[in-house]
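During the reporting period, our protein records have gained a structure token line. One record among many is quoted in full directly below:
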Amino acid sequence: MTKLDEKQIELLKNGSSGNIATVLAKAVPGLSDSSRTITDYGQTLRGRNALILVDGVPMNLTRDTSRGLSSIDPESIQNIEVIRGSNAIYGSGAAGGIISITTKAAGGEPTAKTVMGLQSPLTNFRTDALSGDIHQYFTGSLDNFDYALDFGYKRTGSSYDASGDRIAPEPSQGDLFDSDAYSIGGKLGYHIDDNQYIQLSANYYTADQDSEYASDPSVAKLPAGSVPAKAIKGLKLADQNQNESQVYNLTYKNKDLLGSIFDSQIYYRDFYTRFNPTDGRNQANRANTINQGYQENDVFGSRFTFNTPLHFLGDSSLVWGGDSIREQSEMPLDTFDPEIYDQSGGLEFVKNGNLIYLPELTTQSVGVFAQLKHRFNDQWSAEVGARYEDSFAEVDDFIPLTQANKPNPYTVKGGKVKADAWLYNASITFSPVEEHSIYASFSQGFQLPDVGLVIRNANTGFDLGSSFLEPVKVDNYELGWNGDFDRISSSLAVFYSTSDLGAVQSFNNGLSLARTKEEVTGVEGTIDYLTQDEIWGFGGSATWMKGRETPQGRSEDQKMTGYRIPPLKLTSYISYNPSDTWTNRLQATYWGSQDYRLDGKESFGRYDAKTYTTVDLMSSFDVNAKNNVSIGLENIFNRKYYPLYSQLLRSNNNMSHLLASGITLKVAYSHKW
């Protein structure tokens, strides 16, 4: 497990342009690199998708938008915990692990805090490159009530590479260059008595792009990976990339309900996102149009957990409960005039219609679970648990996009597809001496595949009960050690996961789909050292993994794509903390090379990825008890490099060959009132 508290997050954000996905990529073993854009597509944990929770509310969607880590204001985060490996208690979506984010808490002494930040590339000083943000927080208690209120605004400017050239927009999954973001959140809690507490929280976040720049389509004609993507000015597009999220969360806790600790929550999430336009004139599943998709999701969910001591078994406890989640998704398309688009060189978009890419899709999962924990003595402890999950996906009859504007379109028959599974997990821990432990664990993960990805590309032979819609069930095995030697903390883990069916893979923009048998093997190690006077600290981590897949109908396996399996990752840092008020950190992240091609042939997610290294410097200083100044330099050596996401060419051409930002300065100031 990796834990980041509020102070660590505030410091690390200064070396990652405030991007939480990039912060985690540089701090969490087993996590792939970020895209440096709006999407977390391809950012896997131990080669599989992670469940992203914000105050216990899932940010993942069955109709995956890859927006989980960009659907929350980074400034509202208090701490983050990352659990690596699947977890049967949490069920659907946690095949690779869990990224649990907690927002700033309510209660305590009345406090007001103002935070202001400014960010600029140092390779090109321009007003349109400046980014700035301001946030205000209020927290406190009044009698039996706790409260918290925060609101903020952030302007994200354009980004420039190490040569001072503007970085082109990401044409496939999108970005938030030249955007405005607003957030407002509140929590109101009430202490019913010494044991009972109820809290209602609400959060609204929106990020809306308004840029004059587009990605030049001319670079797509050159050999893939030969030139960087190019930004061109003159974009005329009314509705650009956007994220809008509303979350309402009601929680209740009772410290003594029939001898158990009881936690429960009911939540609702309304999410909307808009993507970049696509020239799909040669794609039947895009109705041979120039179009722009947007997706709307409504999510209702609940969860309850009992933690019951089992005194009759000695040092034992039982964690048990249940959860449910129901999601409704819909994905329309705006279409644009092709003549105006061509005459403008791909810059002007004039709407001429609206189509349905994904009809209304309803998915639901209900689960119950139990986890028994028992300590035999000071050396031995064990856990064993089970979960039962029942899921379905449902869609009405619909006319697929391939039939749009045809004189005699066919209708695809809808219906309901069901899936259920029993999941088990067990672990045993042995502590031969104090501060050292050895553990072995087995756990299973479960999730429905991206049903919408299949439905939106339906053809005449579509069958809702086909194998493409069978659930993903993952078996995880792990053997590890944790140990402390005086001032040194270290860990080592070997992990292996396998699934007979992986997630649905989309190739050629969904024109072909595939599912494969998958095996992922890896090793993680960490080490941290703190001097006796706690002034100097050193540390790092290493992650290596490989993934093999066997396509359906074949006997020979092959390497998995770079969007699933990252290359060798090495991290290191030096910290210097001369006093309680001054913190400094120099960190480096190295990504190795790996050739993902099969028989030397390039295809989606299969390119020859080259090594790159980033180095960042961060410093935080408490001027006094109320004022803090922090500064960060990202990519301090101004290295010119392509992140893994850009080397894998999401659009299969140079329009996705995006250089990373050059050296970037971020300065922040906070004041407690």
Remarks:
- The mean pLDDT is 92.
